[in-house]
């Protein structure tokens, strides 16, 4: 007879193993998998009032809320945020709007705030694609918008548009890969009034507000948002044949969800899911094949880079102390760039050494139409990186380029 403590250990271990196996099996079910990866049901909008923007650090009527129609009868909830200097200049008119509030984009476009964006050809707008869980007003997100807005000048005003994907915050529906890409396209179509399949639902013929040029729009994605912003850029330019955007910035990116799970197990970082199965590659593959939403960023970047003449100004940035998505994941996107351009164009890189492991690599195509930059910074973790001065410096560089 084994001593009692041995039995206890055995049953504890067996119990842990059974829970692990059951959890992994459960996660192969699409609904549960999407709940775990998008985490959209962690939704503080159930108890927070997203219309009360003062609690998120903005001033009265600085934020014009609006809705955008997407595919599958989804209604997205979005914010247009004015830079503080424009708010100050137009404060009277902003706070005296009689019917201020949440409106469909076409009606909101007639409001004071959005007109300051749509009627100003020098204006730029950063569209924010947030990471998984919660909503546009959660945790570091408002601070990110404020950081982006702080690059605004009188000559070149910078506005922010933030939106929740389907199933997040006050947006209806439930997320899946094509759905959230459609959501990105829907927001771009609303802003640009573009003649694609979605514009019809977002545009009523009686209203004739101005629209933006894609070259006025900068996409910034963080974490999950790096995939959605890249896929939106890809679909917009390649499938819908629309003009390219001004730039794309990816913060804490990864090459694909399948690779993310892979590298966690192979390279020995915190093993969230598949590493206990390293001895069973057959089982690992079986699970990988059951990843429904692949979130493949790298192959989209590669495809965009191999298209001649299409403008692409891409910045990929990752913090060395990111413990949620290790920086080598973002670096895989840079490696995809190197592979795609196959020695063409011009590469530059700053000195990389052991004691100051912070560096930048960049690449410009021979015709100067495409440029990519990789920044590895020492601090910023996963969530503070978007609020960093590093991001601001990169944004200034982009705003300066014509
Ligand atoms: C949410 O906030 C807005 C703006 O402050 C306010 O008008 C509205 O009544 C609030 N809604 C609820 C349900 O408290
Ligand atoms: C579309 O969604 C709205 C509310 O979000 C709902 O009232 C309506 O029934 C839906 N229509 C269809 C065709 O599903
Ligand atoms: C990459 O470049 C090399 C040398 O210029 C060339 O031989 C090769 O075919 C290229 N590969 C691809 C996939 O374009």
TrEMBL record:
Pfam families: Abhydrolase_6. The chain crosses the membrane at residues 9-32. This is AB hydrolase-1 domain-containing protein. InterPro entries: AB_hydrolase_1, AB_hydrolase_fold. PANTHER family: ALPHA/BETA HYDROLASE DOMAIN-CONTAINING PROTEIN (PTHR12277), PROTEIN ABHD13 (PTHR12277:SF81). The keyword Transit peptide does not apply. Residues 129-306 form the AB hydrolase-1 domain. Gene3D superfamilies: alpha/beta hydrolase. Keywords: Membrane, Transmembrane, Transmembrane helix.
């Amino acid at each position: 007879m084994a001593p009692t403590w041995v039995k206890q250990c055995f049953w504890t271990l067996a119990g842990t193993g059974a829970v692990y196996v059951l959890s992994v099996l459960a996660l192969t079910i699409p609904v549960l998998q999407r709940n775990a990866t998008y985490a959209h049901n962690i939704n503080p909008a159930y108890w927070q009032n997203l219309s009360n923007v003062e609690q998120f650090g903005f001033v009265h009527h600085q934020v014009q809320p609006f809705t955008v129609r997407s595919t599958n009868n989804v209604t997205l909830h979005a914010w247009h945020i004015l830079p503080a200097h424009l708010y100050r200049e137009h404060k009277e008119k902003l706070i005296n709007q009689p019917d201020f509030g949440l409106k469909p984009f076409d009606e909101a476009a007639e409001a004071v705030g959005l007109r300051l964006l749509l009627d100003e050809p020098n204006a730029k707008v950063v569209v924010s694609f947030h990471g998984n869980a919660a909503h546009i007003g959660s945790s570091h997100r408002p601070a990110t918008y404020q950081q982006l807005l702080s690059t605004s000048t009188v000559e070149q005003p910078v506005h922010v548009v933030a939106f929740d994907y389907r199933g997040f915050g006050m947006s209806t529906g439930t997320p899946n890969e094509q759905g959230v890409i459609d959501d990105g396209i829907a927001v771009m179509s609303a802003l640009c009034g573009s003649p694609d399949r979605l514009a019809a639902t977002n545009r009523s013929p009686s209203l004739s507000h101005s629209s933006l040029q894609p070259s006025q729009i900068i996409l910034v994605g963080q974490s999950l948002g790096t995939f959605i912003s890249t896929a939106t850029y890809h679909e917009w330019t390649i499938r819908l044949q629309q003009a390219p955007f001004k730039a794309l910035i990816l913060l804490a990116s990864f090459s694909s969800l399948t690779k993310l799970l892979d590298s966690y197990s192979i390279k020995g970082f915190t093993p969230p899911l598949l590493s206990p199965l390293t001895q069973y590659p057959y089982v690992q593959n079986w699970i990988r094949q059951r990843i429904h939403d692949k979130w493949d960023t790298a192959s989209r970047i590669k495809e965009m880079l191999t298209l001649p003449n299409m403008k692409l100004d891409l910045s990929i940035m990752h913090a060395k102390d990111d413990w949620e998505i290790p920086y080598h994941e973002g670096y895989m996107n840079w490696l995809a760039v190197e592979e795609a351009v196959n020695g063409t164009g011009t590469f530059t890189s700053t000195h990389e050494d052991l004691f100051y492991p912070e560096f930048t690599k960049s690449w410009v195509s021979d015709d100067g139409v495409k440029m990519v930059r990789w920044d590895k910074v020492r601090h910023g973790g996963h969530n503070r990186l978007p609020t960093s001065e590093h991001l601001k410096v990169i944004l200034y560089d982009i705003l300066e380029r014509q």
